[in-house]
Design goal:
Length: about 90
Amino acid sequence: MSRDTPLYLNLAPAGDLAGEETIDDKADAIIRHRPYHDWSDLKRAGLDQDAIDRIKGAGAELGEPASGPIVEPGSGGSGATPGGNLGKA
């Protein structure tokens, strides 16, 4: 799993998972047993601790990418003003 961005096990489509050497034939099981809140949850998909450690070591992540703050005008929370726009146009 040599990639510029992490492979998110809770979000990745089957094709992306199946293409990863550390996941091999477990892609369908990983998708069926989602969501994963902890690495040990992958045992539900039939992975043993060694396989989980390999996947972690290869750079996979469980969750989803973090999203930034809301900064668009009218969104209720502008990054440019401390109090947000509070419904003001």
